[in-house]
Amino acid sequence: MPALKFVLIGCGKVAVKHLKAVRYHRRSIELAAVVDSRPEAAAPALTAAGYSAREAASLPVFTDVHTMLSAVQPDLVAITTPSGTHFELASAAIESGAHVLVEKPLTLSLREAGLLLEKARQKNVRIAVGHIYRFFPIVQALEADLRAGRFGRILAGDVKVRWGHDQAYYDQAAWRGTWAQDGGALMNQSIHAFDLMTWLMGSPVREVSGWIARQTHRMEAEDYGLAMLRLQDGSFCQVEGTTCTDPARQEASFYILGTEGEIRGGLLTGKPGISVIDRHGKDLTGHYLRQFIRQIWRDGGLPAFLQLKNPHSALYGDLIKSIRSGRQPVADGESGRAAVELVLAIYQSAKEGRAVTLPVETFTLAEMKGYFQ
């Protein structure tokens, strides 16, 4: 089967992870071009991802998306630009007939997310979202067992994203921490984990009570958010997201309590940890790890193990399979929209000082402008 012709839009920091994943899957994906308003950003990103100077020099670099779509006619486009630009770029790519992978969040607007999903259905193309937590080790096996009832009825969950950034992080680009182009700690840093938790818990969110604050940074949006979620099956989930913590000790963790067991997992300074215990106190962690190791070795051998530090490789692998088979990606556009809706519901609750029942119909980030003034 011929390789998918691939184009990357945006050559910022996260683009390197995408390029590494594409290089790993080079038998299935052909890197045909990159797009960036600053063409000089392409070569450093390619070099950091392991491409040779010769490869970087020979790759076409475009500054205009429409020109690229006409010249290259890609099969797959990845978008790693600021969040506020996702809709326009993804819309153009889908209109051209390309599948798209959009970094989180899918969009900053539910209306725009809906338009993308409808356009993708009309064009029969796939939308994947960069919710990489779904591709962390053993997570998919846990999700399958949660759905199968191995952990009994789900009672509650808890997720914390303490992803510290200093002021320089927000000062390096004018769009960071703005309501129009980014949102705050919840929409940017925490949406990965919120998506993971609602996926694992397996029930849509019914009601949200949320609070946000701007505690230590000079920015327009929040650097701390907290919410309590009530899910449709009667379970609860508490969520916290902040960039106020130590940048040297970035942490994301989750906990799920069921009637037949509990799961704890997370990252601390880049090191993953997981614990799975049944209701009798038996440690099941080893079972899941052995199962995961066997699967990785069977599917990709040593190269697959070396890619575990870059979950984008698994994200791309799943997207390639979905395009070839016709199924939806694991991190599909519908789940991307749901994650955006959850964060918007927290913002609406904080702004209006009340619990908000989903679905959120018309609330937009534009309504948050001036919240801290």
Q: Topology, please?
A:
Blueprint lengths: L3 E6 L5 H10 L4 E7 L6 H7 L4 H6 L2 E2 L2 H8 L3 E4 L6 H10 L3 E4 L7 H14 L3 E3 L9 H10 L5 E9 L4 H5 L14 H16 L3 E9 L10 E8 L4 E7 L8 E8 L2 E8 L2 E8 L6 H22 L5 H14 L7 H20 L3 E2 L16
Parallel strand pairs: 1-2, 1-4, 2-3, 4-5, 5-6, 7-10
Antiparallel strand pairs: 7-11, 8-9, 8-14, 9-10, 11-12, 12-13
Helix pairs in contact: 1-11, 5-6, 6-12, 9-12
Q: Can you characterise this structure?
A:
There is one protein chain. The chain is built from twelve helices and 14 strands. It folds into two domains: 4-132, NAD(P)-binding Rossmann-like Domain (Rossmann fold, 3-Layer(aba) Sandwich), CATH 3.40.50; 133-357, Dihydrodipicolinate Reductase, domain 2. The strands form two sheets. An eight-stranded mixed β-sheet has the order 13-12-11-7-10-9-8-14. It has a six-stranded parallel β-sheet with strand order 3-2-1-4-5-6, sandwiched between helices. Helix 1 links the parallel strand 1 and strand 2. Helices cover 38% and strands 23% of the residues. The chain has 373 residues and is α/β, with parallel strands linked by helices.
